[in-house]
Amino acid sequence: MGGCLKKRSLLKMPTSVDYLVVGAGLTGSTIARLLSDKGREVLILERRRSPGGNVIDFLHPSQIRVHKYGPHYFRCSSRRIWDFVNRFSKFYRYEPTVKIVADGQYWDWPINRDLVAKHPRSPAPRPKVKPQDFEEACLLKMPRAVYKAFVEGYTRKQWDVDPRSLDPSLADRIRINNTGESTLTPNSSFQGLPTDGYSEMMKRMIEGIPCSLGVDFLRRQSEFRARKGLVFTGAIDEFFGFEQGRLGYRAHRRCHKFLRDCSQYQAWPQVNYADRADPGLLRRVEWKHLMPPSARKQIQGTVITEDRPFTPRDPDDFEYPIPTRQNSRLSEYYRARAATVPKLTICGRLGSYRYMDMDAAIEAGFGIAKRLLSEKSKAVCPGVTIAHEL
Ligand SMILES: Cc1cc2nc3c(=O)[nH]c(=O)nc-3n(C[C@H](O)[C@H](O)[C@H](O)COP(=O)(O)OP(=O)(O)OC[C@H]3O[C@@H](n4cnc5c(N)ncnc54)[C@H](O)[C@@H]3O)c2cc1C
């Protein structure tokens, strides 16, 4: 009887750890790994059934590797980031090539300087003018005809808003390749894909660190207590119960098809669709192209995936923060709100409400881990019981 009572009261005690990391994506796993490497006590909570967040992949029965949330091409120019990911996986060299369908034809994506030069501009753009929106920023980089053919339609499909309502900084992601360059990111020093896939790499990254899968922290926060720090890598508006409204997100619905009798469906790994022939279709990926040539040869059939953008309601589907002025203002509110909660760090793709490539997520994780590790002198402060902070 006594034992039973004791067990019951123990069950009510929150699990108390020094650092609670919510989310086992690249950001959370990088931070957890670095804290754990330095001997800190860490618990990871992940609401999905497997770690890895947005980068997870799986092997289709045909042995073709598919990235569950769209193709993830790893590239970086930082030796430190490259060494970090290589701790957990070997990589094979892979430089993605992407084509875009515009005006009914296939073109290289990114477009190149030759194409831009074929469309003389009058009046000439004034590069010193600070663009006010995405369209203006694009028109400083390329002629209107090129913008209309290659960028405008694709942008409307992807974001479902007028390109003039999007932040000019989004245009920074549009590269114009030099003549002769035909890959997606020719300037990155390190490029590749993990030999055994991202899911395996992510499992190895958090090896030895306690990780509870299938736990939604926001539903069960009274069960956990973070003594020194809570790192939350989910959506920042969801963390605060959408109290000032919802931030906008886009996502892709992915339809995977296995074509048993087809050895190659398209000549490139990824084809983007800028035209309106199929208004919902944004891109088509053929996964075999991402595999090392030796593995590819042995496979029968092919797997293709068609991506169609939509506006998700369920936070588990959130993929891309929509960079409009309105969202930017609201995310500022949530960031300021987060800054008032002691020991709380909200970060990552959805926490910082900003698209970040994998290398950027890791780099941000390095910075956060460094800050948390340098805060050790403050560790004697009473811990935070998160439920009371909300
Ligand atoms: C479609 C798409 C394609 C991309 N392609 C590339 C690419 O080619 N190259 C590249 O470098 N980058 C790419 N990226 C970016 C890459 O996916 C991100 O850099 C990476 O996902 C960031 O990791 P994260 O940990 O910040 O977020 P996530 O991967 O989203 O991880 C957050 C984790 O937190 C968990 N979580 C959320 N809320 C809770 C909660 N309440 N309780 C418990 N767990 C919770 C989630 O389940 C998730 O696992 C792409 C992104 C998208 C959307």
Describe the structure.
The chain is an alpha/beta fold. It has helices spanning 2-12, 26-37, 79-86, 113-117, 134-141, 144-159, 198-205, 236-239, 293-297, 325-339, 348-351, 358-374, 386-389; strands spanning 15-22, 42-46, 57-59, 65-67, 74-76, 91-92, 98-102, 105-109, 190-194, 211-213, 224-232, 249-259, 270-273, 283-286, 302-310, 320-321, 344-346. Among the domains are: 1-51 and 206-246 and 321-390, 3-Layer(aba) Sandwich (Rossmann fold); 111-173, no CATH class. It contains 13 helices and 17 strands. The strands form 4 sheets. Strands 8-7-13-14-15-12-16 form a 7-stranded mixed β-sheet, with helices on one face. A 5-stranded parallel β-sheet has the order 10-2-1-11-17. Strands 5-9-6 form a 3-stranded antiparallel β-sheet, covered by helices on one side. Mean pLDDT is 91; it is low at 1-9 and 377-390.
Topology:
Blueprint: H1 2-12, E1 15-22, H2 26-37, E2 42-46, E3 57-59, E4 65-67, E5 74-76, H3 79-86, E6 91-92, E7 98-102, E8 105-109, H4 113-117, H5 134-141, H6 144-159, E9 190-194, H7 198-205, E10 211-213, E11 224-232, H8 236-239, E12 249-259, E13 270-273, E14 283-286, H9 293-297, E15 302-310, E16 320-321, H10 325-339, E17 344-346, H11 348-351, H12 358-374, H13 386-389
